[in-house]
Design a protein that fits this description.
Blueprint (H helix, E strand, L loop, with lengths): L9 H9 L2 H16 L5 E5 L7 H4 L5 E6 L2 H10 L5 E5 L10 E7 L10 H10 L1 E12 L9 H6 L6 H8 L5 E8 L2 E3 L8 E7 L1
Parallel strand pairs: 1-2, 1-4, 2-3, 4-5
Antiparallel strand pairs: 5-8, 6-7, 6-8
Length: 203
Protein backbone atom coordinates (compact mmCIF):
# COMPACT_ATOMS: atom_id res chain seq x y z
CA UNK A 1 0.00 0.00 0.00
CA UNK A 2 1.27 3.44 -0.87
CA UNK A 3 2.45 5.67 1.97
CA UNK A 4 0.71 8.67 0.36
CA UNK A 5 -1.73 10.37 2.71
CA UNK A 6 -5.36 9.78 1.78
CA UNK A 7 -7.56 12.77 1.01
CA UNK A 8 -11.32 12.54 1.16
CA UNK A 9 -13.27 13.94 -1.77
CA UNK A 10 -16.42 16.05 -1.63
CA UNK A 11 -18.77 13.24 -0.61
CA UNK A 12 -16.86 11.87 2.34
CA UNK A 13 -15.56 15.25 3.45
CA UNK A 14 -19.19 16.31 3.82
CA UNK A 15 -20.08 13.15 5.73
CA UNK A 16 -17.11 13.37 8.10
CA UNK A 17 -18.09 16.91 9.01
CA UNK A 18 -21.83 16.36 9.27
CA UNK A 19 -22.36 12.70 10.19
CA UNK A 20 -19.01 11.08 11.03
CA UNK A 21 -20.54 7.89 12.43
CA UNK A 22 -21.72 7.01 8.93
CA UNK A 23 -18.16 6.19 7.89
CA UNK A 24 -17.96 3.60 10.67
CA UNK A 25 -21.22 2.01 9.49
CA UNK A 26 -20.11 1.93 5.85
CA UNK A 27 -16.73 0.42 6.68
CA UNK A 28 -18.49 -2.24 8.77
CA UNK A 29 -20.57 -3.18 5.70
CA UNK A 30 -17.42 -3.58 3.65
CA UNK A 31 -15.83 -5.63 6.41
CA UNK A 32 -18.80 -8.01 6.39
CA UNK A 33 -18.73 -8.24 2.59
CA UNK A 34 -15.06 -9.18 2.71
CA UNK A 35 -15.71 -11.89 5.30
CA UNK A 36 -18.30 -13.44 2.99
CA UNK A 37 -15.80 -13.81 0.14
CA UNK A 38 -13.74 -16.98 -0.12
CA UNK A 39 -10.32 -15.88 -1.37
CA UNK A 40 -11.56 -14.00 -4.43
CA UNK A 41 -9.07 -13.24 -7.16
CA UNK A 42 -11.11 -10.36 -8.57
CA UNK A 43 -13.71 -7.98 -7.15
CA UNK A 44 -16.00 -5.58 -9.01
CA UNK A 45 -17.72 -2.78 -7.12
CA UNK A 46 -20.67 -1.14 -8.84
CA UNK A 47 -21.12 2.32 -7.35
CA UNK A 48 -17.72 2.61 -5.65
CA UNK A 49 -17.90 6.36 -4.89
CA UNK A 50 -14.46 7.47 -3.63
CA UNK A 51 -13.24 3.93 -3.15
CA UNK A 52 -13.25 3.92 0.65
CA UNK A 53 -14.12 0.22 0.60
CA UNK A 54 -11.46 -0.77 -1.92
CA UNK A 55 -8.61 -1.48 0.55
CA UNK A 56 -10.96 -3.66 2.65
CA UNK A 57 -12.35 -5.57 -0.34
CA UNK A 58 -8.82 -6.33 -1.54
CA UNK A 59 -7.49 -7.89 1.65
CA UNK A 60 -7.50 -11.18 -0.24
CA UNK A 61 -8.28 -10.20 -3.84
CA UNK A 62 -5.50 -9.48 -6.32
CA UNK A 63 -7.62 -7.25 -8.55
CA UNK A 64 -10.26 -4.63 -7.80
CA UNK A 65 -12.38 -2.71 -10.32
CA UNK A 66 -14.57 0.16 -9.15
CA UNK A 67 -17.19 1.86 -11.33
CA UNK A 68 -19.05 5.07 -10.54
CA UNK A 69 -20.96 7.80 -12.33
CA UNK A 70 -19.47 10.55 -10.14
CA UNK A 71 -16.35 11.83 -11.92
CA UNK A 72 -15.01 13.76 -8.91
CA UNK A 73 -15.38 10.66 -6.72
CA UNK A 74 -13.50 8.54 -9.25
CA UNK A 75 -10.69 11.10 -9.44
CA UNK A 76 -10.38 11.00 -5.64
CA UNK A 77 -10.24 7.21 -5.71
CA UNK A 78 -7.58 7.20 -8.43
CA UNK A 79 -5.48 9.67 -6.45
CA UNK A 80 -5.81 7.76 -3.16
CA UNK A 81 -5.27 4.28 -4.58
CA UNK A 82 -2.79 4.44 -7.48
CA UNK A 83 -1.54 0.86 -7.05
CA UNK A 84 -1.83 -1.48 -10.04
CA UNK A 85 -4.36 -3.77 -8.40
CA UNK A 86 -6.91 -0.93 -8.23
CA UNK A 87 -8.77 0.23 -11.30
CA UNK A 88 -11.36 3.00 -11.07
CA UNK A 89 -13.54 3.88 -14.04
CA UNK A 90 -15.99 6.72 -14.58
CA UNK A 91 -19.00 5.09 -16.24
CA UNK A 92 -22.73 4.44 -16.13
CA UNK A 93 -22.46 0.72 -15.39
CA UNK A 94 -26.10 -0.11 -16.17
CA UNK A 95 -26.16 -2.99 -18.66
CA UNK A 96 -22.39 -3.13 -19.10
CA UNK A 97 -20.09 -6.14 -18.91
CA UNK A 98 -16.69 -5.53 -17.32
CA UNK A 99 -15.63 -9.16 -17.11
CA UNK A 100 -16.33 -12.19 -14.94
CA UNK A 101 -15.51 -11.50 -11.30
CA UNK A 102 -15.32 -13.74 -8.26
CA UNK A 103 -17.34 -11.17 -6.34
CA UNK A 104 -19.54 -8.24 -7.32
CA UNK A 105 -20.27 -5.79 -4.50
CA UNK A 106 -22.80 -2.98 -4.66
CA UNK A 107 -23.65 -1.11 -1.47
CA UNK A 108 -26.01 1.87 -1.22
CA UNK A 109 -26.75 1.92 -4.94
CA UNK A 110 -30.04 0.22 -5.86
CA UNK A 111 -32.10 2.62 -3.74
CA UNK A 112 -31.06 5.40 -6.15
CA UNK A 113 -32.29 3.53 -9.23
CA UNK A 114 -35.88 4.07 -10.34
CA UNK A 115 -38.01 0.90 -9.99
CA UNK A 116 -38.64 0.68 -13.73
CA UNK A 117 -34.89 0.29 -14.30
CA UNK A 118 -34.01 -1.99 -11.39
CA UNK A 119 -34.10 -5.09 -13.61
CA UNK A 120 -31.20 -3.65 -15.63
CA UNK A 121 -29.26 -3.14 -12.40
CA UNK A 122 -29.74 -6.74 -11.26
CA UNK A 123 -29.02 -8.07 -14.74
CA UNK A 124 -25.77 -6.08 -14.73
CA UNK A 125 -24.78 -7.57 -11.39
CA UNK A 126 -25.53 -11.10 -12.61
CA UNK A 127 -23.70 -10.84 -15.94
CA UNK A 128 -20.49 -9.71 -14.20
CA UNK A 129 -20.42 -12.56 -11.67
CA UNK A 130 -18.43 -15.66 -12.62
CA UNK A 131 -20.18 -19.04 -12.55
CA UNK A 132 -18.80 -19.78 -9.09
CA UNK A 133 -18.81 -16.18 -7.86
CA UNK A 134 -21.06 -14.28 -5.49
CA UNK A 135 -22.74 -10.90 -5.33
CA UNK A 136 -23.27 -8.80 -2.23
CA UNK A 137 -26.01 -6.18 -2.36
CA UNK A 138 -26.67 -3.68 0.43
CA UNK A 139 -29.39 -1.07 0.76
CA UNK A 140 -31.35 0.80 3.46
CA UNK A 141 -34.48 -0.93 4.70
CA UNK A 142 -37.75 0.74 3.70
CA UNK A 143 -38.92 0.38 7.31
CA UNK A 144 -36.16 2.80 8.36
CA UNK A 145 -37.21 5.47 5.86
CA UNK A 146 -39.22 7.56 8.38
CA UNK A 147 -36.04 8.07 10.39
CA UNK A 148 -33.83 9.03 7.44
CA UNK A 149 -32.67 12.58 6.80
CA UNK A 150 -34.51 14.78 4.33
CA UNK A 151 -31.60 14.56 1.90
CA UNK A 152 -31.63 10.76 2.05
CA UNK A 153 -35.36 10.62 1.49
CA UNK A 154 -35.02 12.74 -1.64
CA UNK A 155 -32.34 10.49 -3.12
CA UNK A 156 -33.83 7.13 -2.12
CA UNK A 157 -36.34 6.48 -4.90
CA UNK A 158 -36.44 2.68 -4.68
CA UNK A 159 -36.37 1.23 -1.18
CA UNK A 160 -36.75 -2.48 -0.46
CA UNK A 161 -38.03 -4.73 2.27
CA UNK A 162 -35.87 -7.73 3.01
CA UNK A 163 -38.46 -10.01 1.40
CA UNK A 164 -38.59 -8.01 -1.83
CA UNK A 165 -34.81 -7.78 -2.06
CA UNK A 166 -34.44 -11.52 -1.45
CA UNK A 167 -37.18 -12.39 -3.93
CA UNK A 168 -35.81 -10.06 -6.60
CA UNK A 169 -32.27 -11.32 -6.25
CA UNK A 170 -33.64 -14.86 -6.38
CA UNK A 171 -34.65 -14.25 -9.99
CA UNK A 172 -30.97 -14.00 -10.91
CA UNK A 173 -29.24 -16.36 -8.45
CA UNK A 174 -30.07 -19.86 -7.26
CA UNK A 175 -29.27 -19.17 -3.61
CA UNK A 176 -29.85 -15.94 -1.67
CA UNK A 177 -28.86 -15.39 1.97
CA UNK A 178 -30.48 -12.34 3.64
CA UNK A 179 -29.00 -10.42 6.57
CA UNK A 180 -30.01 -7.36 8.55
CA UNK A 181 -27.74 -4.68 9.93
CA UNK A 182 -28.09 -2.08 12.69
CA UNK A 183 -25.21 0.35 12.90
CA UNK A 184 -22.08 -1.88 12.79
CA UNK A 185 -23.87 -5.10 13.83
CA UNK A 186 -24.90 -7.72 11.25
CA UNK A 187 -27.61 -10.19 12.27
CA UNK A 188 -30.38 -12.53 11.12
CA UNK A 189 -33.02 -11.10 13.42
CA UNK A 190 -36.43 -9.63 12.64
CA UNK A 191 -35.96 -7.83 9.34
CA UNK A 192 -38.52 -5.12 10.03
CA UNK A 193 -36.28 -3.67 12.73
CA UNK A 194 -33.14 -3.73 10.61
CA UNK A 195 -31.94 -0.32 9.47
CA UNK A 196 -29.93 -1.84 6.61
CA UNK A 197 -30.28 -4.92 4.41
CA UNK A 198 -27.57 -7.08 2.89
CA UNK A 199 -28.25 -10.02 0.58
CA UNK A 200 -25.72 -12.47 -0.81
CA UNK A 201 -26.53 -14.24 -4.08
CA UNK A 202 -24.68 -17.13 -5.73
CA UNK A 203 -25.22 -20.21 -7.86
Amino acid sequence: MSSTLLKFGDHWSFNIRNDPKRLAFVLARYHFATKMMQNPTSVLELGCSEGVGAPILTRQAKKYTGIDLDMSAIKSAQTNFPEDKFQFTHDDFMGNLYGKFDAVVSLDVVEHILPEFEHIYFETVRKNVSDEGICIIGTPNITAAPFASEASQLGHVNLFTQKRLTTTLGKYFKFVFPFGMNDEVVHTGFSGMSHYLICIGFN
